[in-house]
TrEMBL record, chain A:
PANTHER family, per database record: CHEMOTAXIS PROTEIN CHEA (PTHR43395:SF10), SENSOR HISTIDINE KINASE CHEA (PTHR43395)
Domain HPt: 1-104
A Pfam family this chain is assigned to: Hpt
Lineage: superkingdom: Bacteria
Biased composition (Low complexity): 323-341
Ranges where the Histidine kinase domain occurs: 389-592
Entry keyword Cell division: no
EC nos: 2.7.13.3
Record's protein name: Chemotaxis protein CheA
UniProt organism field: Brevundimonas lenta
Modification sites for Phosphohistidine: 47
From TrEMBL, chain B:
The organism's place on the tree of life at top rank: Bacteria
Organism of provenance: Brevundimonas lenta
UniProt-listed InterPro entries: Bact_response_regulator, CheY-like_superfamily, Sig_transdc_resp-reg_receiver
Positions where 4-aspartylphosphate occurs in the chain: 55
Protein name: Two-component system chemotaxis response regulator CheY
Amino acid sequence: MDAFEAIKATFFQECDELLADLEAKLLVLESGQTDSETINAVFRAVHSVKGGAGAFGLEALVRFAHVFETLLDELRAGRKPCDEITVRTLLRASDVLADHVAAAQGHAPEVDEARSAGLVAELETLTHGEGGAPVVEEEDDFGFTPLTIGLPSLDLPSLDLPSLDLPSLAAAPATGWRIVFRPHGRMYANANETGLLLRELGRLGPVTVSLDDSAVPSLEELIAEENELVWTIELAAAVDEVAVRDVFDFVESDCDLSIQPLGAGPADDLPALPDLGLPSLEAPAEAFDLSALLAAAQEPAIVKAVAPAPVEPTPVAAPAPAPVQAQAAPAQAAPTAPTAPAPATIRVDLDRVDRLINVVGELVIQQAMLAQRVAESGLTRSSGVLMGLEDLELLTREIQDSVMAIRAQPVKSVFQRMPRLVREVADMTGKRVRLVTAGEDTEVDKTVVERLAEPITHMLRNAIDHGLETPDERLAAGKAAEGAVRLAALHRSGRIVIEISDDGKGINRERVRGIAVSRGLIAEDAVLTDEEVDNLIFLPGFSTAETITDVSGRGVGMDVVKRSIQALGGRISISSVPGKGSTFTLSLPLTLAVLDGMVVGAAEQTLVAPLSNIVESLTPRAQDIHYVGGRDAVIRFREAFVPLVDVAQTMGFRDEPVTPGQGVALVVETESGQRAALMVDAIQGQRQVVIKSLETNYQQVPGVAAATILGDGRVALILDVDAIVANARRRPAAPELKLAS
Amino acid sequence: MSKTVLTVDDSRTMRDMLMMALESAGYTVIQAVDGVDGLETLAAHGADVDVVITDINMPRMDGFGVIEGVRADPKHRQTPVLVLTTESDAAKKQRARDAGATGWIVKPFDPVKLVDAVRRVAA
């Protein structure tokens, strides 16, 4: 990637930040805080997008941003009110601007032209008023009012410029230019310098410079900030007049300037200035010697000071000390190379971070192994080895945390996409919604962040589509017409918790139950607690929408959400109060590199079952186990029989299942919501384990998700609960029996 | 000895573009992210800074504030300040000049024009 492409990538990154900031600031405006700083920040965001887009020639983006910016400029200047309608339009315009950015980036298909054009029209209407013809109005960087500058002390008695009027030479091709230049004091105040201008002219061709100081007053009348010197420069090069004018571009209004061609005829024809007997300072084009000129300029100044106002012109005086000083500066002590400010961030390839995380995982394991060996060696607790080992353990943990923090990102990147979604869903459903977010800075592993977007999107849609009532319904229920949806993130006991709550009507348990029965998901006479009824919505194929709306998807229900959360090792739960609203709570591990597991033993092997799959563990009694068709064991669990799977047998560790009454059953739930009981010999404990891919080191093994290394150095397999349950079911079917049926 | 340019712009993109163009022309570049940072950086680097390039629209302190600050500092009142502007009409240039700007660079700029403008004002 060359430097230009790298900057372009930076631009798009910056666009994302600017767009997020834009939206956040617009939401502040929407809340009624229309202070000028916020409006300015909004303006700046759009302005910066436009500026960068211009640099990369992204024309569609520039055009849209320009219209957007023009309206914002009106608001900024207070010429247009920042009312509710305007802010709503601005919000929609920010969405379209985001679309333009995405399209320019190639991340999205073409922008919806009709929508874009519609907004352009809306913005222009707001800018120019209803029906008003769009006035061609330049965007205003400076907020200027045109202003002519009067420079009072500028009478030029000695400079007889009218005599330079040369109509006869107008058409003749110029072989060079005679430039008469009289800087105003202001030119120097702005840090422009005659010497530099002469140097620039010198780049165009050979120059002959002469200086007229006849207007310089005596010392006592001298105004240090003014300038009375007149420079005449003859440029012997047939360059375009524009090139000459360009040299004076920055100073043209801060000087008297006359540029006349040196005609094809002899230069003597030029009436020019009266011959003042000026000494000429000749300078070759390439090396215009500034210091010589300066040296010449400085000494006579003293002479002049001593003997003021001689009748005949003295060569060169220097009443403008400031530029002289500045010109002399480079000759002084050379500036030391400044140290560039240290960048606040560095970019690192993700692979490197992952490699580091992997190695740190090994370190953690090695440290645990070492600790175990030392413990076995029978050293006393006060031995230096043990003390040192404890410190090592602390350091290891710290390194692990720090490394995990490298991959950690705030959930903000996901949260900030949601206001737009909420607006669009609200528009589509005709509901009024206010989104409140909290804990955007909560950090979680990058992979988790990326995979959070989809479930959160889905649940927010559900909350608005199914949870919130229409404004009329809400008013009738004594609530504010505008519904509130809250999206919050927080850390709780080593996990990240995401809460999505609404203040809508809550779950209609009667209806949920009715649907579940009609779909055959539960028995008609099943006795369920409120919590269990609420959880029915997570069952596959359950959808409470009476008609499938555009909003909440087509038959994709909460079961999909639950599956994707479980795939991240997470859990989801719901609590709902009729008439008051519902809260969905997601709980996820902070990283996918570490897993909360239940360490179990089965036929001398140590295995790890992911905690997120485990519902309950129990010691079954012999009478709880039944055999369907004489061989498929099922176990009675709560209201139902669930298949009993002997892990050691399934994995091929031994031929016969563990004797009932001796083993432990882990009741697990698969991603699809099926339950099964996994029989193991014993539970050894619950701990965090570092996940090691089996595919990378060996090959895929059915029933095994990954492996880990335990503190004693043994490898333990992490069970793929879904595969084990599915595998057990592939044998002659033993469907989940309903106790009630 | 290469000359040092202080660039003041709140846009990372612009800062990077300025840096790329100026460094490849042999200048040393110091960056600041807004007007306040710009004046602080200028104060910290003292006489090292030969030219200041500043954006106009920035948070905390805009480009006019930067020019004012530079001109008010006895050590830097003769330091050339170029402003980045998106328009090139005469009135805008005049506004920049009135504020004390030495010159301007019209955005979007090409690296040649940029370096040209810096060279024209750098002593």
